[in-house]
């Protein structure tokens, strides 16, 4: 059995793997209907799970303070899919805390401001209806999130780009890494071979 790659090295390796490459081989781990705020954004990192179950999201501040640098905050905000729990101020705080990025299973707001910030943000939708400091703030950290027939846990590996999001168990990410790398290389060689015989400018702007 090959030695398991350290999490930090696994993160670095998957920065060179497209989600569509993973989708050539795997179904399990795909997160449907979640996309980045802009196509240029890419996100790879270890997940920290959070579930929000109230209109009041103020406890997300404590979550941010407890996160480790380079983690990806995965917020399950499906309690209210119309209400945005994330915006500009929380993104600024997340950058200050050193997060790699944020993925919201739900809505975000302040879209224009988020596009100007350096933090990758992935979400299901955009909404002008937001959370409010009314009632208790019900936030759980490091809990299992049931999603598309699999359970996401803190420490899982998240890979996100313009085509969507995959979340893999570290052992799965390790076991498939070489196959993904081979697929990436094969696609590159195939494209390079084609454009040795064709004018690239006729196909790309």
UniProtKB/TrEMBL annotation:
A Pfam match: RraA-like
An MF annotation (GO) of this entry: metal ion binding
Amino acids binding Mg(2+): 110
Top-level taxon in the UniProt lineage: Bacteria
Record's keyword annotation contains Magnesium: yes
Names of the cofactor(s): a divalent metal cation; Mg(2+)
Swiss-Prot/TrEMBL keywords: Magnesium, Metal-binding
Presence of the UniProt keyword Magnesium in the record: yes
CDD domains named among the record's database cross-references: RraA_family
Record's protein name: Putative 4-hydroxy-4-methyl-2-oxoglutarate aldolase
Species: Acinetobacter vivianii
